[in-house]
Amino acid sequence: MYRKDLQVRNIVLIGMPSAGKSTVGVIIAKNLGMNFIDTDVLIQTRQGRLLQEILDTEGTESFLEIEEEAILSMDCSNTVIATGGSVVYGRKAMEHLKQNGLVIYLHIAMETVYTRLRNLKTRGVVLSKGQTLEDIYRERVPLYEKYAGIKLDCSNNSIEDTLEDTLEAVKREFGR
């Protein structure tokens, strides 16, 4: 239905960990006949280790450099890209993603993050020493809003609702 209009453009999903970027992203790709990339999986594959291992051994700053390098290496079109929550710290990475992509911010309230995010210590969430989940939320939300072409409030949504809202936003953007 939308594929013809999306042949060259990517759909880039940004937001906090647990917003549903990866889950919704793969379903959107299937529904629209597009490719799918999860940048967290891309990083793990390139590095040969889990995100949490990279963070534990290399530290936050090195991880962010690895993440930006992985994003800058991507050359794709007709792809749904689910990003890691920390991607917005990389200005060059975000500019690269925006060049050929519609950036959709899946916004969730802090309370929703707490409800959904259960495995903070092993999930590969970029937290500097002494930083709390609330700290990164306050730090990232303005960056998500800065880079977003579309912002969807998904705080009270099920995955199905977020999927439907995202597909509707894509439909409106591409006029179909």
Automatic annotation (TrEMBL):
Q: Which GO terms describe its molecular function?
A: ATP binding; magnesium ion binding; shikimate kinase activity
Named cofactor requirement(s)? Mg(2+)
Q: Does the keyword Chloroplast apply?
A: no
Q: What class of enzyme is it?
A: transferase
Known catalysed reaction(s)?
A: shikimate + ATP = 3-phosphoshikimate + ADP + H(+)
Q: What is its EC number?
A: 2.7.1.71
The record describes how the cofactor is bound as: Binds 1 Mg(2+) ion per subunit.
Pathway, per UniProt?
Metabolic intermediate biosynthesis; chorismate biosynthesis; chorismate from D-erythrose 4-phosphate and phosphoenolpyruvate: step 5/7
Which residues of this UniProt protein bind Mg(2+)?
22
Q: Which domain of life is it from?
A: Bacteria
Q: Which UniProt keywords apply?
A: Amino-acid biosynthesis, Aromatic amino acid biosynthesis, ATP-binding, Cytoplasm, Kinase, Magnesium, Metal-binding, Nucleotide-binding, Transferase
Database matches in Gene3D superfamilies: P-loop containing nucleotide triphosphate hydrolases
Quick one: which residues bind substrate? Answer: 40, 85, 140
**Which compartments does it reside in?**
Cytoplasm
Cellular component GO terms, alphabetical:
cytosol
Q: Which GO terms describe its biological process?
A: amino acid biosynthetic process; aromatic amino acid family biosynthetic process; chorismate biosynthetic process
Q: Does the keyword ATP-binding apply?
A: yes
**Residues engaged in binding ATP:** 18-23, 123
What is this protein's function per UniProt? Catalyzes the specific phosphorylation of the 3-hydroxyl group of shikimic acid using ATP as a cosubstrate.
Subunit structure, interactors included:
Monomer.
Similarity comment: family membership:
Belongs to the shikimate kinase family.
Its recorded name reads: Shikimate kinase
The species is Ruminiclostridium cellobioparum subsp. termitidis CT1112
Taxonomy of origin reads:
Bacteria, Bacillati, Bacillota, Clostridia, Eubacteriales
